[in-house]
Amino acid sequence: MSLLHRITVAGRATTIREAAREDLALLIEHYRSLPAEDLRRRFLSTFRPDERFVAAWIDRSEQGGAVLVAVEQTPEGERIVADAGYVPSGEDTAELAMTVAADRRGWLGPFLLDVLVEHARNAGIADLSAEILPNNAGMLALLRSRGCALRPGEDPSVLEVLIGTSGTTPSWPADSPRPRVLVEGSAAAWPGSQMAARAGLSVLACSGPGHGRSHPCPMLTGRTCPLVEEADAVVLAMPAGSPCAEQLLAAHTERDTAAPLLVSNGGHDPDPDRATRWSPLDPLASASESLRQVRAAIDRVAPRASDAARRDHAGVSGGSAAAPARAAR
Ligand SMILES: CC(C)(COP(=O)(O)OP(=O)(O)OC[C@H]1O[C@@H](n2cnc3c(N)ncnc32)[C@H](O)[C@@H]1OP(=O)(O)O)[C@@H](O)C(=O)NCCC(=O)NCCS
Fold it and tell me: Is the separation of the CB atoms in 101 and 30 below 8 Å?
C-alpha cells in the first residue's frame, strides 16, 4: 500500500494512502458510520455495502482503478475517515465516488478529491465522471469549484458530472462520438439537449464562468478551452444580458470559434459584423426544431460529422451512445 500524503489539520494527523485488503474491516466500519442519507448519495439507492462489495471496491486497483483511504490513528487503533476511488469507464475516462465521515467534513473532501485527481492523471485518465443526485449540494459544489461539465442523460434523477484531471475544464472523452455539441449554460437551457443525446450526438453542458468555480474559465483568460476546441457546435444558452453570456459571446467572436456558434437566449440580434460568426437559435423552438437547426449549422461546416451520427444510430430508439458504465457502484 503506497503512502500518498500525511497532513495534520486541527491537531489531527491524517494519512492518505491506497487501500489494501487489510483495510476491509475498517472500510466497512466507515461505511457503517455514515448516515443513511450519505449512503443514498454515495450509492444512489438504499444499498448498504457488504463485505463482498467493499472487497471488490478495494480490488479495483487491480483493474486500472484506484481506491484511496484517509486514515487517522486513534487510541483504539486506526480509523478510516474517508475514501475516494475511480474505476475506468471508457478509453480515457473513469467514474469516481467518494465519502467523508460526517465529523470530518469541511476540508477533507476537497483535499482527497485533489489527491484522487492527481492519481488519475498519473494513470493516464483525462476525465473523471461522477453520478450524483441533483440535491447533493456538497458534491455539486465540490465538482463545480473544479470546473465541471454535465452530460445530459436519460435519467433526470441522476446527474453525470465530468471534471478534467489537468487544466481547468474536462475535455471530450476520446470515445465520445461526433457530432459533439457544447452547451454553454445548463443542459436544460437548450431544449434540444436530451433529444440530441438520444439521437447519438455527444452533448456536454458547461456553466462557464461563475457558479462557484474556483478554476478560471479558459475562454475568459486568454487560453483555449478543450471543450470549445473539440466541439462541432457551440450553443450559448445563458440568459441574455447576463455578464457571463456577454463575456463568452465576446470571447467567441474575438477568437473566431471554428465550430458554428448558436446563441439561444433570444436577447441578441446578430449585428452585420458578427452575423457570419454566430447565428441565433430560437429559445422557444421545440426540441426537435432546435436540434434540426443545430444539425443544419454543423452540416454547413462539416457535413460528414452529422451524417456519421445518423448512420451509427439508424434504427436505435432511445439510449445515449455516451451513457457511461455504472462503474463505481
Ligand atoms: C460530498 C462529500 C464527499 C464532500 O466532502 P466534504 O468534506 O463534506 O467537503 P466540504 O465540506 O468542503 O464541502 C464541499 C463544498 O460543498 C459546500 N457544501 C457543503 N454542504 C453544502 C450544502 N448543503 N449546500 C451547499 N453547499 C454545500 C461546501 O461549502 C464546500 O464548498 P466550498 O469549497 O466552496 O466551501 C461529503 O459531503 C460526503 O461524503 N457526502 C456523502 C457521500 C456523497 O455524497 N458522495 C458523493 C457521491 S459519489
Answer: yes
> Phi and psi (nearest 5°) for 91?
-55, -50
Asked whether residue 117 is assigned to any structural domain, the reply reads no
Q: How far is the CA of 275 from the centre of ligand 1 (A)?
A: 43
290 domain-assigned: yes
CA distances from 176 to 58, 73, 91, 129, 181 (A): 28, 44, 10, 13, 11
For ligand 1, whether the C-beta of 136 sits within 6 Å is yes
Q: What's 207's domain CATH number?
A: 3.40.50
Could you report the per-residue pLDDT of 192-216, keeping only the tens digit for each? 999 999 999 999 999 877 666 667 7
Query: CB-based contacts of 243: which residues, under 8 Å, 6+ apart?
Result: 210
Q: 281 is in which domain, residue-wise?
A: 171-323
Q: How far apart are CA 227 and CA 191, in angstroms?
A: 20
What confidence tier does 264 reach under pLDDT thresholds 50, 70, 90? confident
Alpha-carbon distance 191 to 53, whole Å?
A: 39
How many domains, in total, are found in the chain? 1
Q: Which atom of ligand 1 is nearest to the CA of 97?
A: 48
Q: Answer whether 99 contacts ligand 1 (Cβ < 6 A).
A: yes
Q: What is the mean pLDDT of the chain?
A: 87
